Amino acid sequence: MKEEDYDYNLCYEDWLHYYRNALPSELVSAQESHYQELYYLYRVFTNVLRQFQPAAYQLMLTQFPRFKEETRPLVIDRLQNIINKTGQTFLLQLFLLIYEQRAGVNVHEKYPDFEKYQTTFNQNKKRDTMVENLRKAYPPCTDEEWFVFRDELNVTLDEHSQWKKTRELAYTNLLQDIVLSQFSLIDEINPDEWIIYALWLLEDYGDYYYECDFMCSFFDSKLPEEDIKLNRVVLHDKIMALIKERDNHNSRPIDK
Questions:
Q1: b/e map 41-61, b = 16+ CB within 10 Å
Q2: Every domain of the chain and the residues it spans
Q3: What's the maximum distance between 2 C-alpha atoms anywhere in the chain?
Q4: Are 172 and 197 in contact (CB under 8 A)?
Q5: pLDDT tens across 74-121, in order?
Q6: What is the reported pTM?
Q7: For the chain, first and last CA: distance in Å?
C-alpha cells in the first residue's frame, strides 16, 4: 500500500471538525484557549497513524497471505479500508481517558464491569485444556486411551492458543510501541486506567481481525466482486446462505 492512499495531510481545522464529538469536550468547548493542547493531539493522531497504518497493512498481508493475491479493485479498496480504520478509535479513546483522569472521573464508577476487566488483565490467562469432566462426551475408552487422547488434544489446543496470541501481540505491540513513542501524556495514566487502555487496545485488534476474517469468508464464498459493495448485513447473510447450501450439499448421501 502506498502512503498516499491515506489522508495524513488532513489540516488541523478539518481534523477538529471531523473528530470534535469524540475529543475531550472541555477542550472543544473552548478551542481558542486550548489550541495548543488540541493541536498536540492532532499531531499525535496524525503521526501515529502515518507510522502505524502502512505497517499494519504489511502485517495484514503477512497474517492473511491470501490477500496478497487479490487483484480486484473493489476488493483491494475494501482491504485498504480495513487498515484506514485501524488505530483511530483507540487513539480517540486514549485522549479521552487522559482528560477524564485529569477531571477525576472514577473508572470503577464509569465502567460497571471494571472488576472483571481487572481480573482478566491481572491474571495469567489460562490456556484452553481438555478437562476431565468432558470425558463423558467422548466414546467409551480405557483410562490409558483417554490420557493419550487428552494429552494430544491439549498440545493441539496449546499450539492454537499460542498461534492466536502471537498474531494478537504482533498487532498490539506494533500499535503500542508507536503510541508510546509519540504520546508523552501517556505517562500520566494511573494503574486502573491502564486496565481500560489495555481493553481498548485489544478491541482495536479485535475489530481488525474480525474484518480480515470476514474478508476470508468473502473469498471462500466466491461471490462476484460487485457484491463487496453490498450492505454489511446483507453481504453477511448472503455468505452464510452459501455456506449452508454447500454444507447441505456435501452432507447428501452419494448416489449408488
A1: bbebbbbbbebbbbebbebbe
A2: 3-125+169-248
A3: 82
A4: no
A5: 999 999 999 999 999 999 999 999 999 999 999 999 999 998 888 777
A6: 0.83
A7: 52
